[in-house]
Amino acid sequence: VLAAPAILLALLLTLVLSHFLPLLLNPKAPRGSFGWPLVGETLRFLTPHASNTLGSFLEDHCSRYGRVFKSHLFCTPTVVSCDQELNHFILQNEERLFQCSYPRPIHGILGKSSMLVVLGEDHKRLRNLALALVTSTKLKPSYLGDIERIALHIVGSWHGKGGNITFCEEARKFAFSVIVKQVLGLSPEEPVTAMILEDFLTFMKGLISFPLRIPGTPYAKAVQARERISSTVKGIIEERRKADCCKRDDFLNVLLSTDELSDEEKVSFVLDSLLGGYETTSLMISMVVYFLGQSAQDLDLVKREHQGIRSTKAKEECLSSEDYKKMEYTQHVSKMMIIQYTL
Fold first, then answer.
1. Which pLDDT tens digit goes with each residue over 100-152?
2. What is the number of structural domains in the chain?
3. Which of 184, 225, 229, 319 is least enclosed by beta carbons within 10 angstroms?
4. Residues 6+ positions from 185 with CB-CB distance below 8 Å
5. How many other CB atoms are there within 10 angstroms of residue 248's CB atom?
6. Are residues 91 and 125 in the same domain?
7. Is 336 among the domain residues?
8. Is residue 170 in some structural domain?
9. From CA 292, how far away is CA 220, in angstroms rounded?
10. Are residues 272 and 226 in the same domain?
């Protein structure tokens, strides 16, 4: 009976020491705070904030400690950099001076075969496949037509909603639909697409959450959602193999034609493709629309440019790559929005 409190006290002391020991062992580390034992500063870091701001956590820490500081996030001692030049230097020297990695709890959601988790030669191999995806997709004659049809489908679904549209959510649906179409060959109308989207939304909510794997928590739900997505994609792969004569024009055929990847790596690659384009693309589209809404002059010039190009096309004719090249002002606006957002 007397031993129980002693054991509990020893465990607490071990927890506190393991949490704060890196502060004592790394005197040259940047200034900062480790927060509470185990939890660290994760909860403050995860506090939602407006997309066009750094958020209260980063703003407060940058003002206190500078643009590079130490913290304790996702149960891991962490150095956080908000310095653009340093970040560029790190990315330019990846696999030479620096090695990309994620906190271990995130590995539990992404899976051990994810391109975001693997290192060295495995990472290079998967990255080359990702480049092949981008290249082969852009070369497809149907690529731009697919995007246009999906955009029209999304916009068409707004009719009858009474004008209550959350644009950022619609942009996410658009980005997801484009990726699923190019990678898996699935259209937005197919039931399996809606099923994957529902699980993927659960996955995204848990990806950036406190890593507590207890039933009912966002983290635990995300792990389960990834398993369901994995099962769904494996089912699609098996169907393709059975119907070998019915080749489809998507990147899944590229994956199926290679013997370099295991089925688990192929599933992870599909999930990585969704993860890589879903949030980034939809957020950038939303930011462009948001900032255009603040400038009536820029919005009018973009509309005129689009209407001028559209007037040269037949009613059911899709836009071509040459049409997109003519959208010089649209491209200028998009680049300026990207610069403004990343600064």
1. 777 777 777 888 888 878 877 787 888 887 777 777 766 677 788 888 889 98
2. 2
3. 319
4. 248, 249, 250, 252
5. 12
6. no
7. no
8. yes
9. 39
10. yes
